[in-house]
Amino acid sequence: MAVNNNITPQFWTAVLLFLGLCGIALLALLVGAGELDRSHGFVVLLFSILLLLSLTLAFVLPLSCAKSVAIHSILVLGSLVFMFPFAWLIITSFKYPEEVVSYPPTWIPAVPRPLAQSPYVTAEAYDPVLPPPEITDARWQRLKPRITDTLWERSAVHLDAAHYDGLNADRLREAIVQGVWHTLMAGTPAAVWQQDDDALLDALARRVTKDRLEDVWSAIYRCVAVREPFVTNRERLDFPITGLSLANLEDEATPTDNIVLRQQPISLAASDFMTVLAYDLDHNPEAQFQLELPLPMKTSDLLSVTLPLRQDRTWHRLRFVLEVDGQRYESQDPLFSGGYRWQELTFKLADRDATDERDVGIWPLKPVLNTPDAYDNPGHIRISLVIQRSSRLAALWNKYVQNYRNAWIAGEHWDRYIANSMYLVLMNVIGQIISCSMVAYAFARLRWPGRDVVFLAVLATLMLPPQVTMVPLFLVFRTLGWYNTLRPLWVPAFFAGGAFFIFLLRQFMKGIPRELEEAALIDGCGYFGIYSRIILPLIKPALAAVGIFTFMGAWNEFMGPLIYLNDQRLYPLALGLFNFRDEYGGDFGMLMAASTIMILPVVVIFFFAQKYFIQGVTLTGMKN
Q: Among residues 276, 338, 287, which one has the least CA distance to residue 313?
């Protein structure tokens, strides 16, 4: 029996250690590798090492020390598990759209590279060239140079000088090989990899088609390109610029010294020529080009100008300037070259239509005062696109806050949502603290007939599900004329609407010695004076706990606003986020950014006030 008593605690300690270490290792593998579908040999080896480590720690270390390590490993695992959803929420709000849906998951958001030269190529969308599982390491070392040469030679057949004019040859080769290899790995049958070397190389070469290379080229090639702009009049009718075409767009533009406009293909299609803006910001941090355009309408009828633009994901700042009739207009919103697809940027004269349409991609142009040198040619306008270089830190900030900026712009009433939530939280906290503390004082410190029966009736309301009282309460508030107002969401808090809070405060007050009240009564203090001057100061921890729980409940309340509110301007954040999800649920980056805005205040309040959750159940005051 003595042997069993010595072994049993160590055995259970080893079990706890093993479970904790396995959980931590699996989470580390999921975050580091992005997947758990490893070979059986790897899993067996990993678990064997963790089992050996657990047994060693349990039987070699002193029992108290081993128990401490086991308990802390379980606590660390639990913390990681509970923190994982919040960390995933924050990380997803920093990602590009393609990072969100990638597999294996991309846990660390891509760091933007504000390159000074453009066009350029990048292989950031593809993993390095790694061997397939069917090829041994020795064979891979022998085949890798030949595979790389084969893939590049077959790809170069579909490229001509116009495609890679001005690009770094080594980077181009590396990016194309990585991209083609990535697509081949995903679709090549296992039997192909088991062929002899020459047959394998021939099979890979045949799979390098123009369509496959086109997909790779669209992912690795970055440039700023423009198409013919068009204008819109006050009646929202679009008009092309008379006499302007892609063929003469290059001749009509006036670029600065560090930017060159040239016609070149941006895809492998022979006819896909575009006007590419090749710039170099090494010596001059700003590049721009101007276009003087004839208007197919009166200048007084002009409302907006649309510039089809392909971006290069350098996160440099873009600034648009429009000059008409001696007046200069400039874009005020922060715009960045953060994408790499075509996008129509529409810029509207804000003094002719002040409607905020940024959520649909229409950016306001604000008039600039005191511009005597502004372009003034009757029947013509001059537009300028300015590219301003961003530092690495600025590019990182711009990229990571982009989803938050887009979410704020896309939501029409975010400021009202936040104001409504703060108002409801404030009124509910004040109402619950005042009303529940007064009722609890009456139950705990005053003697009156039927007190215990009434207290039991109050506790009995905890067993009533809210669905039972939902319809009667709605009818009452509708009769009062409170439908589609915020009153039903905060007025009940001033009538002691929290039975649990009453019970908590009553139990807290019952621990306060009556000698304090008796001394106060002798000094001539009334019951309300005792409540305000003695009871309330002594139950501050309990009041803080009530306030925190009320804050969390009011901030996250969804069902009440859904029932009583119909006007979006009255929505709190919870209902506003639900409405935002219906409109932009497909953009996970924006949705996670909006969700972060919703959850951060609760996290901050809990972080700074967590001690009150503990003190809320601890008696405070003198001993009886």
A: 338
- Give 397's DSSP letter: H
Residue 37 CA from chain centroid, whole number: 27
Does residue 437 contact residue 536 with C-beta atoms inside 8 Å? yes
In terms of Cα–Cα distance, which of 29, 33, 25 is closest to 103? 33
User: From residue 459, how far is each of 8, 61, 443, 502 by CA, in Å?
Assistant: 45, 51, 12, 9
Q: Which residues pair with 320 in a beta bridge?
A: 385
| Residue 118 near residue 260 (C-beta atoms within 8 A) | no
Look up residue 451 and give its two tokens. 């007190």
**What's the burial of 327, exposed, middle or buried (CB within 10 Å: 0-12/13-18/19+)?**
middle
The number of CA neighbours under 13 Å toward the Cβ of 572 is 26
User: Residue 352's closest CA among 339, 368, 365?
Assistant: 365
Distance set, CA 289 to CA 160, 346, 438 (Å): 28, 17, 71
- The kind and range of the H/E element at 155 are helix 137-156
For residue 167, give Cα distances in angstroms to 88, 121, 154, 223.
37, 7, 19, 11
Q: Beta partners for 264?
A: 274
pLDDT score of 119: 92
- CA distances, 599 to each of 86, 390, 608 (Å): 9, 31, 15
Residue 148 burial class via C-beta count within 10 angstroms: exposed 0-12, middle 13-18, buried 19 and up: middle
Q: What is the pLDDT of residue 42?
A: 73
Name which of 287, 270, 268, 277 is nearest 312 in CA terms. 277
**Maximum average pLDDT range among 121-130, 347-356, 464-473:** 347-356
> Are 70 and 20 spatial neighbours (Cβ–Cβ below 8 Å)?
yes
- Among 59, 53, 92, smallest CA distance to 407 is for 92
Q: Answer yes or no: are the C-beta atoms of 301 and 244 closer than 8 Å.
A: no
Nearest Cα to Cα of residue 422 among 560, 549, 551, 544 = 551
With CA atoms as reference, report the closest residue to 175 among 113, 244, 123: 123
Return the higher-pLDDT residue of 128 and 390.
Answer: 390
Residue in this structure with the two tokens 């790694």, named with its chain if needed: 130
Q: What percentage of the chain exceeds 90 in pLDDT? A: 33
Peptide bond into 119 cis (omega under 30): yes
Amino acid identity, residue 487? R
User: What is the C-alpha separation between 83 and 77, in angstroms, rounded?
Assistant: 10
Of 37-41, 53-57, 214-218, least confident by mean pLDDT is 37-41
Does a cis peptide bond (omega within 30 degrees of 0) precede residue 465?
A: no
Q: Count H helices, E strands: the chain? A: 23, 17
CB 305 within 8 A of CB 347: yes
Residues 436 and 154: their CA atoms lie apart, in Å, by 78
The type of residue at 446 is L
Most confident segment among 21-25, 39-43, 91-95, 616-620: 91-95
CB 377 within 8 A of CB 326: no
Three-state SS string across 156-205, please?
Answer: HCCCCCCCCCCCCHHHHHHHHHHHHHHHHHHHCCHHHHCCCHHHHHHHHH
Can you name the residues that pair with 232 across neighbouring β-strands?
238, 304
Of 53-62, 91-100, 349-358, give the lowest mean pLDDT range. Answer: 53-62
3-class DSSP assignment, residue 459: helix
Q: Which residues pair with 49 in a beta bridge?
A: none
